Amino acid sequence: MLRCGSLITKLRKIDVFNFDLNNEIFKEASEIFSKGGLVAFPTETVYGLGANALNEQAVKNIYKAKGRPSDNPLIVHIADKKDLEPLVREVPEKASIIIERFWPGSITLIFKKSDIIPSVISGGLDTVAIRLPKNEIARSLIAVAKCPIAAPSANSSGRPSPTLAEHVLEDLNGKIDMIIDGGACEVGLESTVLDITSEFPCILRPGAVTREMLEDAIGRVDIDKEIFSEVSDTDTPKSPGMKYTHYSPKANVTIFIGDKIKVAEKINNLVFEAEHKNVKACVIATEQTKSLYHSSNVLVVGDKEKPETIAANLFKTLRECDSINASEVFTESFSEDELGLAIMNRLKKASGYNICKVD
Ligand code: TXA
Ligand code: MG
User: Fold this and answer.
1) Dihedral sign, CA of 207, 346, 110, 229?
2) At what angle are helices 136-145 and 23-34 packed, to 10 degrees?
3) Separation of CA 152 and ligand 1 centre (Å)
4) For a pocket test of ligand 1, which of 70, 76, 190, 203 has the largest count of ligand atoms closer than 8 A to its C-beta?
């Protein structure tokens, strides 16, 4: 049975001071999983929309609730390293090293899939993406459910990923059974996706576990060329999710690259022009640059010296542009070093690769 989108979505708040009290919430969620239902839960990266990964119909319900294209495969989440083996055909040596060093954590590994993974999860591919999250709520939930949990980010397809329970509610209220509110996600960007099936592992989606960190553990790691270029609908990227429009607020987003003073001048002029035409514009800036702007709608995304603050706030800031009903968003760009590669990857996608170089 496919759902029609008129469920009552329960909201359950995690008690962070007395963790044992949350067991009732995990049991309630686990009942929902056993009936093929959907529960959104926090991870350290973003909120996930979970279902029992071994129940084909439940997995189909995820695609329906999100409005997600069926050829975009899902990540399977586990609670413990020992849960990996039944899901994959083999664990290459380099994968074992990465698991040892980075699991639990914000890296997803692509393996050859075993036969128990329904093909609806892998979008028809013979591989499967697996992740062991660090977040204690996520791991406790999966452990109580006693099954692997398929979970994409818990947003409507195309919208910025959710880093707060409120974001999930905004997108999926009435379409899913339950949301577990565990507060703000620490990292704020989705996990690194690493294909470990080839001789030289390849990053398909950059995240908080960076190329530098991986190369330190296993030597050469490639980065999929699609990360540096726009992917059109006709291309077939290795990670199917990379081809879709992503992370976008409703407004037009333009990224400005160049000297910070010249960028601010250019943005100030564009805001002035927009306001003259009664078009609401907002600016995304940092602690270091906010005072360069005249607009009354300056959103500070973080501290340039601390990229982790920008990562943690990026999706929330993109959603705030919608809350203030902006039609135009003018944003600064950030360094693409290390974690910056993931930050700029999401921002470029949010802009539809609308990038303006200021000389
Ligand atoms: O941090 C995260 O990874 C979050 C949390 C909830 O764990 N999940 C998440 O899932 O971001 P999702 O579905 O929004 O993104 C999964 C990405 C997509 O780009 C998808 O194409 C890719 O992983 N992917 C999944 N299975 C794959 C496979 N077998 N081969 C290549 N790419 C795969
Ligand atoms: Mg997603």
Assistant:
1) negative
2) 50
3) 6
4) 190
Digit-coded pLDDT (tens) for 291-317: 999 988 999 999 999 999 999 999 999
- The 10s digit of each residue's pLDDT in 202-215 is 999 999 999 999 99
The whole-model pTM stands at 0.95
**What does the pLDDT read at residue 227?**
86
- Which residues have any ligand 1 atom within 6 Å of their CB? 43, 45-46, 48, 72-75, 108, 110, 122, 125, 127-129, 131, 151-153, 190-191, 193, 204-205, 238-242
| 314 burial type by CB count under 10 A (0-12 exposed, 13-18 middle, 19+ buried) | buried
> 349: helix, coil or strand?
helix
Q: Which ligand sits nearest to residue 45's alpha carbon? A: 1
CA distances from 27 to 32, 33, 109, 247 (A): 9, 10, 28, 32
The rounded distance, in Å, linking the Cα atoms of 308 and 126 is: 34
What would the pLDDT profile of 161-210 be if each residue is shown by its tens digit? Answer: 999 999 999 999 999 999 999 999 999 999 999 999 999 999 999 999 99
